[in-house]
Design a protein that fits this description.
The structure holds two protein chains of two kinds. By secondary structure, chain A is α/β, with parallel strands linked by helices. Chain A has one domain: Pyruvate-ferredoxin oxidoreductase, PFOR, domain III (Pyruvate-ferredoxin Oxidoreductase, domain 3), CATH 3.40.920.10. Chain A is 36% helix and 25% strand. Chain A has helices at residues 15-28, 75-81, 114-120, 127-138, 144-154, 163-176, and strands spanning 2-10, 32-37, 47-55, 67-72, 85-93, 108-111, 178-179. In chain A, strands 2-3-1-4-5-6-7 form a seven-stranded mixed beta sheet, sandwiched between helices. Chain A starts with a strand and ends with a strand. In chain A, 46% of the residues are buried. In chain B, the strands form three sheets. Chain B has a seven-stranded mixed beta sheet with strand order 3-2-4-5-7-6-12, with helices on both faces. Chain B folds into two domains: 6-195, 3-Layer(aba) Sandwich (Rossmann fold); 249-360, Rossmann fold (3-Layer(aba) Sandwich), CATH 3.40.50. Chain B is α/β, with parallel strands linked by helices. In chain B, helix 1 (11-21) packs across helix 7 (148-165). The chains are: A alpha/beta, B alpha/beta. Chains A and B meet through helix 1 and strand 2 of A and helix 8, strand 8 and helix 11 of B. Strand 2 (32-37) of chain A pairs antiparallel with strand 8 (181-185) of chain B.
Amino acid sequence: MKEEIIIAGFGGQGVLSMGKILAYAALMEGKEVSWMPSYGPEQRGGTANVTIIVSDERISSPILSTYDTAIILNQPSLDRFEQQIKPGGTLIYDSYGITTPPTREDISIYRIEAMEAAAEMQNAKAFNMIVLGGLLKIHPLAELDNVLLALRKTLPERHHKLIPVNEAALRKGMEIIYPVR
Amino acid sequence: MAKEEIVLMKGNEAIAHAAIRCGCDGYFGYPITPQSEVLETLAAEEPWKTTGMVVLQAESEVASINMVYGGGAAGKRVMTSSSSPGVALMQEGISYMAGAEIPGLIVNVQRGGPGLGTIQPSQSDYFQATRGGGNGDYNVIVLAPASVQEMADFVDLSFELAFKYRNPAMILSDGVIGQMMEKVVLPPFKPRRTEEEVEKECPWAAIGKKKHRAPNIITSLELEPHHMEEKNLHLQAKYQEIREKEVRYEEILCDDADYVIVAFGSASRIAQKVIELCREEGLKVGLLRPITLWPFPSKEIHELSKHVKGILSFEINAGQMIEDIRLAVEGNAPVAYYGRMGGIVPTPEEVVEALKKELIMK
């Protein structure tokens, strides 16, 4: 088993931490993982992305040019990464701010209105966990229990009170993701 | 014994945790992307409250390396870390350490140059690291980690080698290995050496004059040329011993290989993917990964060159290691180069193309 994933969006959306929690959860299931961020003069509102590989075997290159799954959270990232999804791969996107929807016909496409759901939950910061919930519904890369454990490991203790909110967000994401094609 | 804990962290963070755990006495550094997490992690961990390790943000890289000089001269396990432009500033201090035979660890998480360059990954400090870097005839022991695990493991190894040979050691990493997260098993805790242990293991150290011996003098200055030549001959003999005893490398699928890629650090990770892609096409390609860049695995590459149709030096720079490979190959096989510069990290696919174009199709 090997899954090569790109998560891409705006800086400040929680792209990197979402990837870290996914990687940590997979690690706790005994998988090999790598987490490679785009790093640069990053700022809130700029683009950010992270490549995550989850595998049963030793991981070679942490940097890739094609992906099994792309999670796309803004238009610039869709423009950049849609063509880099392997045929038969998966694209998950939030349509908020997307003016030119994806056109590929050789991949599975899912939509998740996570921005909208986060607004309904009155918690903009839950956005990335809603998206992660959606991904886990489509590709069960880790058990929910291990994702919660990963949150416990990665969040500083003073934020542990937020874990129930994050759990609710993960479950919400699992409910609201739906196939476009 | 406690069950070993597997954690997920960045290469830079692994360096910091490993330093605390392997009995490091002091860290002196100045922030620079992409290695700032080393100092940040040390500051967050506050080891001065637990192991007594000193952590100090110096006023500059020049100050940092001279603090390492001072700590090392007193027999302490001390280190600094920086990225390319910062390590360039340290070269004078490193040369003085080599001349005065002071052990210490310098970590370079490389970024693209020359000059202030970019903050993206690069391997363009290969020459600087493996040729000494500063003035005079000297070498630094250079280890090139290819994973977060090796970032952790090479801290203690570097100190061991540095003290064994009384020579500076360097971990030559880059923005890929420094910034990426992987799982890592941190080394077990080892206490810092006591004053008595330092005195016993480092009889040369400047730790205060004892009545039973002459003063220990730590210096790189020797005005009498005959004495200076003797000192150089001593250093060269030491470097020869290091060349004979401390070469480290890894071979992957070289036994049946028609073509071999030589790559280190992050490039060697990309090269592993290149091998996978090539073997899917039926091309027998292997990888030789130098783990020590100095001393370089010249003998091993020479032997390999007798049995292959070509060697590709794949490095994220303009082609620096290729010089060492050509010297090792001595014309036994064609040697080609592929790389990118300025902070661009090549994709596995473009390396496959280069391998075909430069060697297989020729």
